[in-house]
Amino acid sequence: MPDRRFPILAALLAIVLTCTAAAQDGVPITFLPPPMDGPGTISLGIFNGAGKMIRILHREAPIDDFKKGENGLITRWDGLDATGQPAAPGKYGVRGWMAGNLAVEGVAFHGNDWIKDESPRYTRVLAVKGVGRDDVQVTLRTADGKEATLGWKLSREGAPPPENKVAAAIEDGKLTVTRDGESVPVLFADGEKPLACATGSRGRVWAIVETPEGREVRAYSEDGEFLRRLAYQKTDPQPVQIVASQWSEMIFLLEENAAEQRLRALALGTSDQQSETSPQSPAKSAWRVTYLKRIIQSGTFDAIAPYLGRAKAPKAEPVVKWKTQPNPLLGDTKPEITLKIAVTDEGVVLQTADDLPLAHVTSAHNLKWAALVKEDSSLLLFQGDGVAVEEFKIAHAENLMSFDAGEIELRPPGTKPKKPDLAPKRTKPLRPGDDL
User: Fold this and answer.
1) 104-134 burial code (b ≥16 CB/10 A, e <16)
2) What count of Cα atoms within 13 Å lies in the side-chain half-sphere of residue 292?
3) Is residue 312 scored above 70 in pLDDT?
4) Shortest CA distance to 220 belongs to which of 190, 187, 264?
5) Based on the number of CB atoms within 10 Å of its own CB, is 310 exposed (0-12), middle (13-18) or buried (19 or more)?
6) Is residue 51 domain-shared with residue 196, that is, in the same domain?
């Protein structure tokens, strides 16, 4: 039902107010607020004859911020544009929107598995290493440039791991295995080079090896005999650091490329799922991922889009057309708005295509980007600070209603408005007997 609080006809919305730009107390503007159910905030702008907004008069203002008059809400315009300069003489439109509850809901957190609700904002894994005989320690960098350490105990029921008498080391590009004081070199083919190594249960020696075809993780016996491999595609995150469990054939790998960095724990299974291609190792091996944490580069929406859990990477839209609530005072039956977003120091603002802010939809600092995505019948918002990405759903973006506060004509100082000519217009002179 239309708002009956003010005794004014809808036609008064088109009233023309005439004034001079030098008016000290500003131009009075009276308008009817949209009859929207529930509370809402008002954003009001001044637009020139070309339809360009020259001044945001109110942004996300509650109704109580306005003076209530007999014929509606009252505000004033000082005749200045957004730069603080007097607006040029001419006619200006006064238009706005009321925003109700848009119901913005947090949906998911993407791109950084290390960050939880209360945890520091970890940005990169610096190192993974074995500590003692049954611990794994991970060192991470935080967003403020500090370092933090996390660890896992691999011990079983507090018992010490089996004694490992095998050691391995890489010197001058050569891998050597030492057992009971005796050292054995590990042989590599031409063009291959060991990069990192670790010893694990049953005297296994694990090594990251650079080959002409790419990097591999290999297992060797305590005698330097090649046992099995885990090969990588060149597009995969490549292994850079390795730690081996003393309890079982499990390894921890730090892997990275330009797109992502990940820490994985891999356990060697018994089923035949992965064929070995090396003639040295005709046996088959199956690796099972038992632990995975990733940090994906998210400096832009395009970089993170393939990792947002969709079968097809979502596409950001610079503007989105959306249906809104009709304002019965305007007689619009199928109202529509063109929406876009802007990143501010305090979060993301939903605004019209002509830059009138409608509502702060998220609160966050140091954002690098935000993106709108229209997915089925939902409007989604993604925002990123370069460390992680948050996904939100704007569940009721239709809770918007436009209104028109009329037209203002600014005249140069000293100019008097023309008196209306009320005489009827005629195209030929009066004759005797003609009616006036």
Assistant:
1) beeeeebbbbbbeeeeeebbebeebebeeeb
2) 11
3) yes
4) 187
5) exposed
6) no
Rounded Cα distance between 119 and 260, Å, is 20
Residue 302 domain flag: no
Distance in Å from the first CA to the final CA of the chain: 46
Determine, yes or no, domain membership for 132: yes
Distances (CA, A) of 165 to 160, 182, 204: 14, 11, 10
Shared domain for 137 and 265, answered yes or no, is: yes
Same-domain status, 241 and 344: no
On whether both 265 and 323 belong to a single domain, the answer is no
Q: Are residues 38 and 163 in the same domain?
A: no
- Which amino acid belongs to residue 371? A
The Cα–Cα gap between 261 and 139 comes to 13
Instruction: Determine, yes or no, domain membership for 360.
Output: yes
Query: In the listed set 296, 330, 346, which residue is the last one of a domain according to the structure?
Result: 296
In a domain, 308, yes or no: no
Strand order, beta sheet including 135-142: 122-131, 135-142, 147-153
- Predicted confidence at residue 18, as pLDDT, reads 46
Same domain, yes or no: 182 and 269: yes
Reported as a single tens digit per residue, the pLDDT across 72-114 is 999 999 999 999 999 999 999 999 999 999 999 999 999 999 9
If asked whether residues 179 and 278 sit together in one domain, one would say yes
In whole angstroms, what separates CA 35 from the centre of its chain?
34
On whether the pTM is more than 0.70, the answer is yes
Please check the confidence at residue 1 and state whether its pLDDT lies above 70.
Answer: no
Q: Taking a C-beta distance cutoff of 8 angstroms, is the pair 263, 269 a contact?
A: no
User: Do 270 and 208 belong together in one domain?
Assistant: yes
